[in-house]
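Pilot study result, target chain (137 residues):
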Amino acid sequence: MAHASLRWVENLTFVATDAQGHSVVLDVTPDMGGDGRGIKPMELLLMALAGCMAMDIVSILKKKRADVKRLGAELEATRSETDPKRFTDIKVVFRANREVKLDDLQRSLELSRDKYCSVSATLQLAPKVSYEAAVEE
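Predicted structure:
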């Protein structure tokens, strides 16, 4: 089971922490009411998708004995103009060093997207989410 926690710092700045104690600062830009001191939550979602897939792709390429030395991703996402302003389209482009065969990179991407990446799978088939409110005594 995965676990994470969130702590409010001030204004719209929050610190999210995972079960191992790793933290990330969340915030929004000043024009959105924040201080711009952290990652916007929707951008963090994009980063999670790219990170999950990139880890898979590197692992798969290494198993194929590909000469992978560099892998990066660029993401573009379109959001709805009306609330809740969800992503309607996400485009992810992975780029590897020239020694990696394009066919190997493409196949690794497909395996990650369709079989291994938990973030991709979650985005494609949304989980059941439950919510609860509590006030401390």
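One observation from the pilot: DSSP finds three helices and five strands in the chain. A full batch analysis is planned for the follow-on phase.
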